[in-house]
Amino acid sequence: MPEVNVGIWGHFSIWVNRHQPIARLVGLTIGLVVFLVFLPPDMRIAYWEGLRSHKILASMLLVFSLLAVSLVWTAGQKVDAWAFLAFNLWGPRPLWLDRMMLGFTQIGSGIAALTIGLVLFLTGNHLFSYKFLLGTLALWLVVELLKFLVHRSRPFIRLAQTRTIGNRANGRSFPSGHTSQAFFMATLIAQHFHMSVWVVLLLYTTAFLVGITRMYVGAHYPRDVLAGAILGSAWGLLGMMVSGNGMTRIG
């Protein structure tokens, strides 16, 4: 059979399919750099000044987050698998519940985050929308980097009895990106708008349920979800502290 000339784009597509984790890291890095380039200069200055003024506390939060997500290297895979299968298989699973959980889990998706960022911008919260989108892009990059470094397989690869809802998720399992994003949004929105206790409880309950859905649909272990919740919450707190002082001066 004669060799088919696939061209430059064809070779690029083949490379991306074979090296998806690296491709995602490169793509997210490029996206973050482009976003920073087009970010208003006063916003870049505000973030830099905020980072300098809170560098010790920011470093502590990042170290804490990395220590928390390092739980994946400890013993306990059997317990993790047992807890996952309890969430994934226990009890009745009617079609309406499957569809509801599959829809609810999208709250932690990138499309939902971009939509919320756009709504914030269109409603006049320009500075906060920049903060929200910048934090989202940076969080995605951190999550993909951790997935690449930890290299933990999805539950449905190791556990044959796993019940998957919808399409099987690509990439690695640890940490849960959807859960990270849900807790990041809950933390950032609650602090920025100084919401009441009941609204804050609703936001975090929603984020918690997103984590539950990730196990229900067969995409993540419990420790993936726990790590995502810690990382997302810490990232939201870090975003508020880094940009808080600069945002006040700009506003």
UniProtKB/TrEMBL annotation:
It comes from the Bacteria. Residues 127-240 form the Phosphatidic acid phosphatase type 2/haloperoxidase domain. SUPFAM superfamilies: Acid phosphatase/Vanadium-dependent haloperoxidase. Keywords: Membrane, Transmembrane, Transmembrane helix. SMART domains: acidPPc. InterPro entries: PAP2/HPO, PAP2/HPO_sf. Pfam families: PAP2. The chain crosses the membrane at residues 22-40, 56-75, 104-122, 128-150, 197-219, 225-244. The keyword Aminoacyl-tRNA synthetase does not apply. This is Membrane-associated phospholipid phosphatase. It comes from Longilinea arvoryzae.
